[in-house]
Amino acid sequence: MLFEGNERKQREREMRQAGRLPPGQSLTLKWPVLHYGSVPRFDPAKWDFHLRGLVEKALRLSWEEFNRLPKSEVRSDFHCVTRWSRFDNAWTGVLFRDVLQLVQLRPEANHVLVHAEQGYTANVPLADLDRDNVLFATHHDGEPLAPDHGYPLRLIIPHLYAWKSVKWVRGLEFLDHDQAGFWEQNGYHMYGDPFKEQRFSE
Ligand SMILES: Nc1nc2c(c(=O)[nH]1)N[C@H]1C(S)=C(S)[C@@H](COP(=O)(O)O)O[C@H]1N2
Ligand SMILES: [Mo]
User: CB within 5 A of ion ligand 2: which residues?
Assistant: First the structure.
């Protein structure tokens, strides 16, 4: 136990010196589980993924179709607004850009409302999804996602607080304006940059 605490402090120091520990955060070697509501059941026959809103033609992918998309790996850090950060996570999944390619956006599309099971949503500017390290993850550190970490599919946006990294994700709605998601309606910041400590609005 003592050793574990020393290792954690040592790594935290390293991450702080490397400029990777955002202000007000502490490093965890564990992986806490955090969400509102219950863990949804996954039924591959009923699961689908929607791309809708400001697209020329809306698209619905089955679980099988989604899994035929090319797989990529991304290594990134994860910052929860409740003040823990988990570093060097190895994610496997489908890049946002590989999904975006499947639809033709209307020119006015500039924001996305990400939809998940049970009505959870998060708003993200399109430019913040359209980055080379944003992906829909199926695996973490070589293992399939556990149900409480978002199995079968979760979004990972490393540069924003983790409430934007939507678990049990089911689709994207393209919009021409920013529209508050679940936590954003409940006082969380509309953007959520951990390095600027954008935790809450006001
Ligand atoms: N669908 C859904 N996704 C969610 C949440 C949620 O309540 N519902 N909570 C978010 C929050 S606040 C955090 S910190 C991360 C936590 O992910 P983890 O439980 O895998 O650590 O998931 C995010 N994604
Ligand atoms: Mo969080």
Answer: 34, 80-81, 162-163
